[in-house]
ABC transporter
Amino acid sequence: MNGTPSPHPQEVVRLDSVRKIYGGSRHHQVAALDGVSIGLHRGTFTAVMGPSGSGKSTFLHCAAGLDRPTSGSVQLDGVDLSPLKERELTQLRRERIGFIFQAFNLLPALSVLDNVTLPLRLAGRRPKKAAVNEVIERVGLADKRGSRPGELSGGQQQRVAIARALVTQPAVIFGDEPTGALDTYTAREVLTLLREAVQWGGQTIVMVTHDPVAASHADRVLFLADGRIVSHLDRPTADQVAERMTHLGAWGTESAAPAAQPGGWTHR
Ligand SMILES: Nc1ncnc2c1ncn2[C@@H]1O[C@H](COP(=O)(O)OP(=O)(O)OP(=O)(O)O)[C@@H](O)[C@H]1O
């Protein structure tokens, strides 16, 4: 699965001219992604925003190898996903990707410890006690190792999910509205943890969110409209993100604003 060396070694995720068309018959086709090209650098935190139906989930699913583009290519950690068979894709996801979902997706019958170590065991790797303990301590759950998810608050459950994502030391963690089910205070705690994982752990995180405050924790916010990246902001405040989202409603009807294509991060 190694293939030829990537021409963009600093990028952990790379999409080139990615289109995703849904719907069989010509008149019912939707371009959920309409020619997206972007590179996301290692050790960065990217938020993806946009109006409902703009293609955020599709972007995440294509970038994470959960869905295949209709055309274009996706590289993950230097691996071109297009030629991979389903089994190889599953293996790559297990080994190189962590996921954090809005609904936590923990196994209720398993303890915190067993939930956290599950991805390692699924990948046939023996959990190293010291490393696992370090991750559990890092998310502040050292005294909850033996608890079941049902005995934890929403914020604590999401911290278990973060530990589970971090434990395999994945090339990238994808978050789908990871703070969507949390109150403001707890959401901030979880976002701070994610920020720390990027800042101190060198983790790469890509997060879809509807929340300008959540997005303001990212290094870069990408804005999607009608399946295209139409704009970006670097280290923005929540107010700046909210303002851009307000404008996006208008851009959505005018189609993509070409002048607003992000530069810098090897986007083309
Ligand atoms: N499985 C599917 N079949 C048909 N159309 C789909 C499918 N999945 C998504 N779409 C369409 O593709 C477009 C983009 O959808 P997507 O879910 O990626 O948007 P989104 O920005 O994540 O939306 P939301 O914020 O509402 O979750 C929408 O028009 C949607 O209706």
